[in-house]
Every structure is written in structure tokens, then in C-alpha cells.
Amino acid sequence: MFHPVPLFVGLRYVRSRSHTFFVSFITWVSLAGVAVGVAALIVILSVMNGFEDELRDRLLSLTAHARIVTAPGVAGPVTDTTWERAQLSASSAPGVMGVAPYLEIQALAVRASEMVPIVLRGIDPQAERTVTDVAESIAQGKLTALTPGSDAVIVGQGVAAHFGLLVGDQLTLLIPTTDANGTPTPRLQEFTVAGVFEVGLQDHDGTLVFADRADVAAALGRTSAAGGLRIRFDDPLAAPERSAAIRSVLPSQLQIIDWTQDNASYFRAIRIEKTMMALILLLIVGVAAFNIVSMLVMVVTDKRTDIAILRTLGASPRAVMAAFLTQGLIIGWFGVIVGVGLGVAIALNVGTLVPLLEHTFGFQIMDADVYSITSIPSDLNWKSVAWISVAALAVTALATVYPARRASKVAPAEALRYE
Description:
The chain has 419 residues and is of the alpha+beta class. The protein is 54% helix and 16% strand.
């Protein structure tokens, strides 16, 4: 049982000024190591959360929260009636803010002697605004240029830079089609560049080309422009649950795929990086915990006489152990508290601190010539702060067990023999 006497003795040892310089130095190093490790863990994970949010926002800027497409193994084209029924069912589902038809194909952009693979997406300009956060560069009147029969396209900045395209230039697209017998028959189609967009994501800027849905259908030789449906929900993070509800009312020829499935590899990689980074930074706390062990072992050696006197006065081994547990826990947990406070303060003010450091030292961390994201985002997750605190407290608590047990096993007669 943890009596007041062990608590008093443990606190007295923490405040004691009689330690040797080396022991005191190790104490402060241990405390600082725990604080730095916890603060670094909170700040790094907050920054990685910020980059994850930024990536998700950019992915969803031109990507719907879910899309309805033809299910694998369906023979023949899906009828317009089936698509209309699916659009009606999706529009009436809970949490759906917009549904828009689209047509998307893989093609080759050709200019002079160069070719670049692109994704040609045929959209309904009016409906498209209801399902995606259309980038500002597209929304500034450029979507109005996409009208049926105009053969106009809006290209990503990467495509435009590769070919040196300007508004009004001609761009040839090599579109894969098939004849009545099913034989592949590529078709060359001239389009006019009506605008250039940039969202800061290579998967969009370097491959995506917008055109009117009817123009894409005509280039494919289709009489119908049906190809799929794009859906926007009120909460993108609820897309898997909302999609499951829609899936239950869809015709058997169709399936629904949400954005988390389309971009699973991105976020799986981020989760792995965050996990590994957390484990690596937690090692800093582990090293500091070893310092606590070393410090307490030296204190136990230095206080052998005190331990013997306490035992002679009737203190039990458990009471002696509790006294040294108190000393180690106070040092370790005070370091955790300082680290949490420091980490939270830095994570909440990254947007202010980074520009200040860049201005003071004359360098730029995220160079605009190299990175599409020029500022360091931060998203403090209080659940992460909680588990970091608990993990650090547990590590520092475990570090005190061995020295405390060693102190409890000191034999009074042996310790006082040469005193």
C-alpha cells in the first residue's frame, strides 16, 4: 500500500540538493529527453495529419466522393433507363448533395511528335459543380466554354506545360474506339484548349482533361453519353457508409465505389509512415527512460545508508520501493507534462512559427519550385495527444520499476557494516 511516508521520502529525494553533480545532471537530461520526445511526437504527427488533410482536400477538389459505374462482368452496355433509375435512387439517398453523369476514357494527347497519356473526362458543366469542389482556375468562367459541339477542352497545368499549350491552341487526342465488329479503331480528334487548371496534385494536373460529355460520346462514336454517375455527400468522411446505403438500392448491373477505395494506396502509405514515425520518435522517450533508470540506480547506490536506516526504523521493502517509484514517476511524468504542453503549443502555432523561422534564418522550408504545398499545415488530433501521453507515462513508469525493486532488496546490516 502506498503510505504517506514513502510519498514524503520520494518527494524529499526529488528536491534534495545533496546529489552529486553527475546524478543531478542525469536527472535533468532525463526530464528534458522525455519532454523533447513527447513534444516532437505530437508536433510531427500533427504536421503529418495536416499534410494528410491537405492531400485529401486536393484529391477531392476534382474527385467526387463516390461514383457509380458498370459492374464487372456485365455483358453489353447499360441502358439509359437503368442509369436514370440509378441517378434517381442516388439523389434521394440520405446525405447526398449532388449527382452528376460523366464519361471517362483513357486517351493519348498528341502535339507535334510528342504523346502523353491522359484521362479525358466528359462532364455536364452545370451538374459538375454540385459534385466536386471545382478548382478556382476552372470555375472562373472556363466551364461555360464546355458546350455540346464546341470540341473545347480544359487541360491540367502539367499537360499544358508539357506541350506549351495556351488558350486557343489546338490539341489532338488519340481516342481508342471499336468498329461494329469489335475491332480496335483509334480515332484522332482535334480539340481547342479553352482553359488551364491547376490544383497542385500531379495526378490531376498532369493527366486530367475536361470536355463536354456529349463531345466525348461523339468522339467515341456513341449515340448516348451515359458512362457513370458522380456523387457528392454532405460529409466526405462518411462516404463508405453512405455508399453502402446506396449500393443496396442499385440495379445489379451497377456498382458504387467511394473515394477511399479509389485512393486507398495514398492513405495506406500515409498511415504506414505515421506509424513508423511514431515508433521512431517514441524511441527518444525510451532513451530518456533509460536515463531515468541510470539516475535512479545511482541514487539507490548513494542512498544505501538512508535505505538501511528506514528499514531499521520499520519501513517495509514495499515502502522503500514506493519511495523510489515516487521519485522516478515525478521526474518522468513531469517531463511528459512539459512535453505535452510544449508539443501542443508548437502544433497549434506552426503556421506562425515556420514563417518566423524562415524570415529569421533566410531560408524556405517548402520551396515553391520543388513542392506544390508551400506551407506546413498542422492538424492537432487530441486523441493522438492522449495516446502519446499514456504511452510516454507507461514507458517512464516501467523505467522506475527495476531501480525501485533494487532499493527494496538492500539489506540493512550489509549497508551499515562499514558506516
